[in-house]
Amino acid sequence: MNSEVLKLARDRLRELGLSRHEASAYLALLTMGEMTPRDVSEATGIPYTKVYDVLRRLERKGWVVAVSEGPLLYSARRPDDVLESLRQDFEKKLSEVKDLLNVFEKGVGLTPPSSIYVIRRTDTLEKIVRSTVNAAKEIVYALVATNYMSRLFATLRKYPRVKVIVRRGVPAPQVGELRSLDILLPLDLVIADYKRLVLSFSALIGKAEPKICGVLVIDEEVARTATEYFNALWAAAKK
Predict the structure, then answer these.
(1) What domain count does the chain have?
(2) How many whole angstroms separate alpha carbon 79 and alpha carbon 205?
(3) How many CA atoms lie within 13 A of 142 on its CB side?
């Protein structure tokens, strides 16, 4: 048999979960018929001290069967039978994984893990704010407390629904619904779709390169709590 075809077949069998020796043993049995462990060892180069373990593993996995005990002979199962068993086993595992993931998705007694990323570069902060706004499908809330964030929002082109509270004295970006507030900490906040939020320490930018420029939080519970805070400020803000 062509060595390239043999190598390709062995590689594909390894992708299905067989070891190098297991793949070689199965192909030898498939092409040569019933063989003793010693025959398999001589045909494949698998050390004789290892070939028994290799064949027993193949038998447990359903790729070969022992057809005789004295002498011990092994035979390869038909590829169609093996692959059908693999397909059924894979579909069963997929179904089990689907059921488990549905439990996580519905949050039945479970809290999904949070993701918190510290942003240390101003260019990274800008990219994250842009991508957060551009990826939003429902609504974006923003506290604009600094000139930096106002300028950044003014350059964005794609918006879903947007509500922006601007600290008085900061130029207002002409986007969405705007309100102003006299007392607002110099901390910019962007919330997208009640799922993600970016805290930006923009007041530090421009004076010196800060060690931390902001924080990205991907957590629906935190984002919704931040949204409640925003709505309280929105109610107090002036149109």
Answers:
(1) 2
(2) 65
(3) 30
- The two tokens of residue 152 are 């950044």
pLDDT of residue 203: 63
What type of residue sits at position 131? S
The region, left, alpha or beta by phi > 0 then psi within -120 to 50, assigned to residue 108 is: beta
Domain that holds residue 145: 115-236
Supply the CATH number for residue 18's domain.
1.10.10.10
Which residues of the chain fall short of a pLDDT of 50?
none
Q: What is the pLDDT of residue 204?
A: 65
Residue 107 inside a domain? The answer is: no
Matching residue, tokens 């006299």: 182
Question: What is the CB neighbour count within 10 angstroms for residue 146?
Answer: 22
Distance set, CA 52 to CA 36, 56, 57, 161, 167 (Å): 10, 6, 9, 67, 77
Q: Are residues 223 and 148 in the same domain?
A: yes
Phi, psi of 164 (to 5 degrees): -125, 125
Report how far residue 216's alpha carbon sits from residue 120's, in angstroms, rounded to the nearest whole number.
11
CA distance 39 to 108: 56
